[in-house]
Protein backbone atom coordinates (compact mmCIF):
# COMPACT_ATOMS: atom_id res chain seq x y z
CA UNK A 1 0.00 0.00 0.00
CA UNK A 2 1.10 3.51 -0.76
CA UNK A 3 1.28 5.94 2.12
CA UNK A 4 -1.59 8.43 2.12
CA UNK A 5 -0.76 12.13 2.05
CA UNK A 6 -2.96 14.20 4.28
CA UNK A 7 -3.62 17.79 3.12
CA UNK A 8 -4.82 20.08 5.81
CA UNK A 9 -7.99 22.10 5.02
CA UNK A 10 -6.08 25.12 6.32
CA UNK A 11 -3.42 24.67 3.63
CA UNK A 12 -6.13 24.38 0.97
CA UNK A 13 -7.73 27.61 2.14
CA UNK A 14 -4.37 29.40 2.11
CA UNK A 15 -3.74 28.31 -1.48
CA UNK A 16 -7.18 29.48 -2.55
CA UNK A 17 -6.66 32.83 -0.82
CA UNK A 18 -3.25 33.31 -2.46
CA UNK A 19 -4.65 32.42 -5.88
CA UNK A 20 -7.59 34.78 -5.38
CA UNK A 21 -5.29 37.59 -4.23
CA UNK A 22 -2.98 37.06 -7.20
CA UNK A 23 -5.97 37.10 -9.59
CA UNK A 24 -7.26 40.35 -8.09
CA UNK A 25 -3.83 41.98 -8.36
CA UNK A 26 -3.41 40.81 -11.97
CA UNK A 27 -6.89 42.00 -12.93
CA UNK A 28 -6.28 45.36 -11.25
CA UNK A 29 -3.00 45.73 -13.14
CA UNK A 30 -4.69 44.97 -16.49
CA UNK A 31 -7.49 47.46 -15.76
CA UNK A 32 -4.97 50.13 -14.71
CA UNK A 33 -2.93 49.49 -17.86
CA UNK A 34 -6.01 49.89 -20.06
CA UNK A 35 -7.01 53.10 -18.27
CA UNK A 36 -3.48 54.49 -18.72
CA UNK A 37 -3.46 53.59 -22.43
CA UNK A 38 -6.85 55.26 -22.93
CA UNK A 39 -5.74 58.42 -21.12
CA UNK A 40 -2.42 58.53 -23.03
CA UNK A 41 -4.24 58.12 -26.36
CA UNK A 42 -6.72 60.86 -25.45
CA UNK A 43 -3.88 63.14 -24.37
CA UNK A 44 -1.96 62.50 -27.59
CA UNK A 45 -5.09 63.14 -29.65
CA UNK A 46 -5.75 66.38 -27.75
CA UNK A 47 -2.14 67.49 -28.34
CA UNK A 48 -2.49 66.81 -32.08
CA UNK A 49 -5.74 68.80 -32.19
CA UNK A 50 -4.11 71.68 -30.30
CA UNK A 51 -1.09 71.59 -32.64
CA UNK A 52 -3.32 71.64 -35.72
CA UNK A 53 -5.36 74.47 -34.24
CA UNK A 54 -2.25 76.49 -33.40
CA UNK A 55 -0.87 76.02 -36.92
CA UNK A 56 -4.20 77.00 -38.47
CA UNK A 57 -4.22 80.20 -36.40
CA UNK A 58 -0.64 81.01 -37.45
CA UNK A 59 -1.44 80.33 -41.11
CA UNK A 60 -4.45 82.65 -40.88
CA UNK A 61 -2.28 85.42 -39.43
CA UNK A 62 0.22 84.98 -42.29
CA UNK A 63 -2.55 85.03 -44.91
CA UNK A 64 -3.85 88.28 -43.43
CA UNK A 65 -0.35 89.73 -43.82
CA UNK A 66 -0.38 88.98 -47.56
CA UNK A 67 -1.21 92.35 -49.10
CA UNK A 68 -1.16 93.84 -52.58
CA UNK A 69 0.55 91.61 -55.14
CA UNK A 70 0.88 88.78 -52.60
CA UNK A 71 -2.84 88.26 -52.12
CA UNK A 72 -2.43 86.10 -55.24
CA UNK A 73 -0.25 83.59 -53.40
CA UNK A 74 -1.66 80.08 -53.13
CA UNK A 75 -1.67 79.13 -49.46
CA UNK A 76 -1.43 75.45 -48.52
CA UNK A 77 -4.64 73.98 -47.12
CA UNK A 78 -2.96 70.74 -46.02
CA UNK A 79 0.37 69.95 -44.36
CA UNK A 80 2.74 69.31 -47.28
CA UNK A 81 6.27 68.12 -46.48
CA UNK A 82 8.89 69.57 -48.87
CA UNK A 83 12.02 68.35 -47.07
CA UNK A 84 12.87 65.65 -49.63
CA UNK A 85 13.38 68.09 -52.52
CA UNK A 86 17.00 67.61 -53.62
CA UNK A 87 19.62 69.64 -55.50
CA UNK A 88 23.40 70.27 -55.66
CA UNK A 89 25.84 73.08 -54.94
CA UNK A 90 28.58 74.34 -57.29
CA UNK A 91 30.93 71.54 -56.17
CA UNK A 92 28.29 68.93 -56.99
CA UNK A 93 27.56 68.13 -53.34
CA UNK A 94 24.06 66.72 -52.81
CA UNK A 95 21.60 68.56 -50.60
CA UNK A 96 18.02 68.15 -49.52
CA UNK A 97 15.75 70.88 -48.28
CA UNK A 98 15.90 69.13 -44.90
CA UNK A 99 19.53 70.34 -44.65
CA UNK A 100 18.27 73.92 -44.43
CA UNK A 101 15.37 73.59 -41.99
CA UNK A 102 15.35 75.48 -38.71
CA UNK A 103 14.19 78.80 -40.16
CA UNK A 104 11.62 79.89 -42.78
CA UNK A 105 12.83 79.92 -46.38
CA UNK A 106 11.84 81.27 -49.75
CA UNK A 107 12.72 78.64 -52.38
CA UNK A 108 12.85 79.85 -55.98
CA UNK A 109 13.25 77.69 -59.11
CA UNK A 110 14.65 79.55 -62.11
CA UNK A 111 16.57 79.27 -65.40
CA UNK A 112 18.75 81.66 -67.42
CA UNK A 113 16.46 81.33 -70.47
CA UNK A 114 13.46 82.46 -68.40
CA UNK A 115 12.77 86.16 -69.10
CA UNK A 116 10.63 86.74 -65.97
CA UNK A 117 13.44 85.18 -63.90
CA UNK A 118 15.82 87.93 -65.06
CA UNK A 119 13.39 90.48 -63.63
CA UNK A 120 12.80 88.59 -60.40
CA UNK A 121 16.34 87.55 -59.41
CA UNK A 122 17.47 91.06 -58.32
CA UNK A 123 14.31 91.29 -56.18
CA UNK A 124 15.12 88.01 -54.44
CA UNK A 125 18.72 89.12 -53.94
CA UNK A 126 17.59 92.37 -52.33
CA UNK A 127 15.15 90.53 -50.06
CA UNK A 128 18.00 88.29 -48.92
CA UNK A 129 20.24 91.32 -48.25
CA UNK A 130 17.59 92.92 -46.07
CA UNK A 131 16.00 90.00 -44.22
CA UNK A 132 18.33 87.04 -44.77
CA UNK A 133 20.17 85.68 -41.75
CA UNK A 134 19.53 83.40 -38.79
CA UNK A 135 15.74 83.90 -38.98
CA UNK A 136 15.14 83.61 -42.73
CA UNK A 137 16.85 82.66 -45.99
CA UNK A 138 16.36 82.83 -49.74
CA UNK A 139 17.49 79.80 -51.76
CA UNK A 140 17.44 80.07 -55.55
CA UNK A 141 17.81 76.78 -57.43
CA UNK A 142 18.72 76.84 -61.11
CA UNK A 143 17.22 74.08 -63.27
CA UNK A 144 19.07 74.65 -66.57
CA UNK A 145 19.99 71.34 -68.19
CA UNK A 146 22.95 72.42 -70.32
CA UNK A 147 24.25 75.79 -69.07
CA UNK A 148 27.72 75.67 -67.52
CA UNK A 149 28.28 76.74 -63.90
CA UNK A 150 30.31 79.70 -65.19
CA UNK A 151 27.43 80.87 -67.38
CA UNK A 152 24.97 80.61 -64.50
CA UNK A 153 27.27 82.54 -62.15
CA UNK A 154 27.82 85.23 -64.80
CA UNK A 155 24.04 85.56 -65.16
CA UNK A 156 23.71 86.13 -61.40
CA UNK A 157 26.47 88.75 -61.51
CA UNK A 158 24.91 90.51 -64.50
CA UNK A 159 21.56 90.89 -62.71
CA UNK A 160 23.24 91.90 -59.42
CA UNK A 161 22.10 88.74 -57.64
CA UNK A 162 25.45 87.11 -56.90
CA UNK A 163 24.65 87.06 -53.17
CA UNK A 164 22.28 84.19 -53.98
CA UNK A 165 24.34 81.05 -53.45
CA UNK A 166 24.74 78.68 -56.39
CA UNK A 167 22.36 75.73 -56.20
CA UNK A 168 21.30 73.64 -59.15
CA UNK A 169 19.32 70.63 -60.36
CA UNK A 170 20.17 70.02 -64.01
CA UNK A 171 17.93 66.92 -64.01
CA UNK A 172 14.88 69.17 -63.44
CA UNK A 173 13.55 66.52 -61.04
CA UNK A 174 12.86 69.16 -58.42
CA UNK A 175 10.63 71.06 -60.86
CA UNK A 176 8.94 67.93 -62.19
CA UNK A 177 8.17 66.75 -58.65
CA UNK A 178 6.41 69.96 -57.67
CA UNK A 179 4.63 70.08 -61.02
CA UNK A 180 3.24 66.57 -60.40
CA UNK A 181 1.87 67.86 -57.12
CA UNK A 182 0.02 70.61 -59.00
CA UNK A 183 2.18 73.37 -57.53
CA UNK A 184 4.16 74.52 -60.57
CA UNK A 185 2.87 75.72 -63.92
CA UNK A 186 6.14 77.11 -65.31
CA UNK A 187 9.07 79.31 -64.30
CA UNK A 188 9.74 81.04 -62.08
CA UNK A 189 8.01 79.25 -59.20
CA UNK A 190 8.54 80.29 -55.58
CA UNK A 191 7.72 78.42 -52.37
CA UNK A 192 7.40 79.91 -48.91
CA UNK A 193 8.52 77.15 -46.53
CA UNK A 194 8.22 77.02 -42.74
CA UNK A 195 11.11 76.20 -40.40
CA UNK A 196 10.13 72.51 -40.36
CA UNK A 197 10.17 72.13 -44.15
CA UNK A 198 6.41 72.36 -44.72
CA UNK A 199 4.82 74.44 -47.45
CA UNK A 200 3.16 77.69 -46.37
CA UNK A 201 2.37 79.09 -49.82
CA UNK A 202 3.48 79.06 -53.45
CA UNK A 203 3.56 81.62 -56.24
CA UNK A 204 3.77 80.99 -59.99
CA UNK A 205 5.44 83.76 -61.97
CA UNK A 206 7.72 86.67 -61.11
CA UNK A 207 6.91 88.73 -58.02
CA UNK A 208 8.28 91.98 -56.51
CA UNK A 209 10.00 90.26 -53.59
CA UNK A 210 11.88 93.38 -52.49
CA UNK A 211 8.82 95.60 -51.99
CA UNK A 212 7.26 96.51 -48.64
CA UNK A 213 4.37 94.04 -48.99
CA UNK A 214 6.80 91.15 -49.52
CA UNK A 215 8.89 92.15 -46.51
CA UNK A 216 5.77 92.49 -44.34
CA UNK A 217 4.73 88.97 -45.36
CA UNK A 218 8.14 87.50 -44.53
CA UNK A 219 8.22 89.33 -41.19
CA UNK A 220 4.81 87.83 -40.38
CA UNK A 221 6.17 84.33 -41.09
CA UNK A 222 9.17 84.99 -38.84
CA UNK A 223 6.92 86.41 -36.10
CA UNK A 224 4.56 83.43 -36.17
CA UNK A 225 7.59 81.12 -35.87
CA UNK A 226 6.18 78.65 -38.36
UniProtKB/TrEMBL annotation:
KW Membrane (keyword) present: yes
Domain Thioredoxin: 76-226
Subcellular location: Cell envelope
Keyword set includes Isomerase: no
GO biological process terms on file: cytochrome complex assembly
Pfam families cross-referenced by the UniProt entry: Redoxin (PF08534)
Location, primary (coarse class): other
GO molecular function, one term: disulfide oxidoreductase activity
Alphabetically ordered keywords of this record: Cytochrome c-type biogenesis, Membrane, Redox-active center, Transmembrane, Transmembrane helix
Ranges annotated as spanning the membrane: 18-37
Cellular component GO terms, alphabetical: cell envelope
Top-rank taxon: Bacteria
InterPro entries assigned to the protein according to its UniProt record, in alphabetical order: Redoxin, Thioredoxin-like_sf, Thioredoxin_CS, Thioredoxin_domain, Thioredoxin_ResA/DsbE_sf
Name of the protein this chain belongs to: Thioredoxin domain-containing protein
Organism of this sequence: Bartonella vinsonii subsp. arupensis OK-94-513
Amino acid sequence: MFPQIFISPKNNNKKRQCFLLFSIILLSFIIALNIYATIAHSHKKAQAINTDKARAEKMLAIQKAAKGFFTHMRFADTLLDMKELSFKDIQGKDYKLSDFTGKPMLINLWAIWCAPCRTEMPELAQLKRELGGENFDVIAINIDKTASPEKIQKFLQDVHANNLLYYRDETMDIFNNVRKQGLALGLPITFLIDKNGHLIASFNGAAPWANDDAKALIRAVIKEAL
